[in-house]
Amino acid sequence: ESRPVKTIKIHEHLRSRLSELYENECIFDKFEVVVSGDGNNMATGSYNNNFHIYDRYGKMDLCIEASKMPPKQQMLYEEQGLRYDDVFPASGAAAGGVLGEKSAGAENDVIDYNRKAMYMSWHPQQPLLAVAGLNNLYIYSQ
Predict the structure, then answer these.
(1) Contacts 24+ apart (CB under 8 A), 8-17
(2) How far is CA 60 from the centre of its chain?
(3) Spacing of C-alpha 57 from chain mean position
(4) Dist CA 59 CA 86 (whole Å)
(5) pTM of the model
(6) pLDDT, one tens digit for every residue, the chain (142 residues)
(7) Cα distance between residue 68 and residue 97, in whole Å
(8) DSSP string, 5-61
């Protein structure tokens, strides 16, 4: 095939901010994309030290802020019924805190271009996701 099987729009909220990205010398930032060991989920970083977890169908976007505090996260639904438990089924919470919900919508209005979650790795056999943000490594599990 000469075309993608599925296209998932990740940083669509930045399209209107291209001049800000250029002015902050972030226009060429490259965020890693990793795939879970079972192949059902993908993750990538973003600004504000956020990272996104997507299901392989592109129907769920789970946005979590990598932080020492309990994760500030938002769920963006394209269809009803998808929860954090669908990604990490055992407990529904990331290491270090309780997850809260936010209504569907775009990323935060204020973007801190200096806080980036650019590097991550998903364990090939365990449901563990390591995210590097600022000078910390955050490990999320079920």
Answers:
(1) 8/42, 8/54, 8/58, 10/44, 10/46, 10/52, 10/54, 11/46, 12/106, 13/106, 13/107, 14/47, 14/107, 14/111, 17/111
(2) 11
(3) 15
(4) 12
(5) 0.71
(6) 689 888 888 888 899 999 999 999 999 999 999 999 999 999 999 999 999 999 988 888 888 888 877 654 444 433 334 444 444 444 333 333 333 333 333 445 789 999 999 999 999 999 999 999 888 999 998 6
(7) 9
(8) S-----SGGGGGGHHHHHHTT-TT----EEE-TTSSEEEEE-BTTEEEEEETTS-EE
108: Cβ contacts below 8 Å, ≥ 6 apart:
48
Contacts 24+ apart (CB under 8 A), 100-109: 100/72, 100/73, 101/73, 101/74, 101/75, 102/73, 102/74, 102/75, 104/75, 104/76, 104/77, 105/74, 105/76, 106/12, 106/13, 107/13, 107/14, 107/46, 107/47, 107/48, 107/50, 107/63, 108/48
